[in-house]
Specification:
CATH class: Alpha Beta
Largest sheet: 6 strands, mixed
Order of helices and strands: HEEHHEEHEEH
Number of domains: 1
Distance between the termini: 35 Å
CATH architecture: 2-Layer Sandwich
Low-confidence stretches: 1-20
Number of strands: 6
Mean pLDDT: 87
Helix content: 40-55%
Oligomer: single chain
Radius of gyration: 19 Å
Number of helices: 5
Length: about 170
Amino acid sequence: MRIVGLVFGLAALGFASTAFADDVSLTPVSYSPQFQTALTDNYGLREGEYLQVSVTRAVSAALARRGVTLSSDAPISIDISIVDAQPNAPTMAQLFHTPGLDPIRSVSIGGAQLRAVLRDAQGEQIGEVNHRRYNYSIEEYRGLRPTTWQEADWAIQQFAQKVADAYVAHQGAH
């Protein structure tokens, strides 16, 4: 009897998380003017493309786990901006322009700051998500070799979950 109740309870919970799911569209990920300058002058444009793809995939996956379908003509859109991102290891452009950097041993405090704005069909803002995550100390990587965008990738995953939560909260309020 408990198993039947558990199954029905889980089914109801699954239905509740998708019962108000609607289509949503993601606009192309943009950059703040400051981050665009950092890409152009320091990190390299390909790094921006990597981060755009990473953000789009993470947010899409977080929404899909909530039963949300992506559609270009959806009544709700999400505008995402990379406000800032800093790598944990030198990018290819940084290695090219700064010969003293070591591709293996050079590490730095990395992370990202992201922003999302949820808009209704009339373009009115119905929600906002801001997320920021950076390493606290270079000591976190003592003896380890982080990937180029390791902390930024973690920030992106956390941000994606917050965006999905904000969407579900808005849908649940209506």
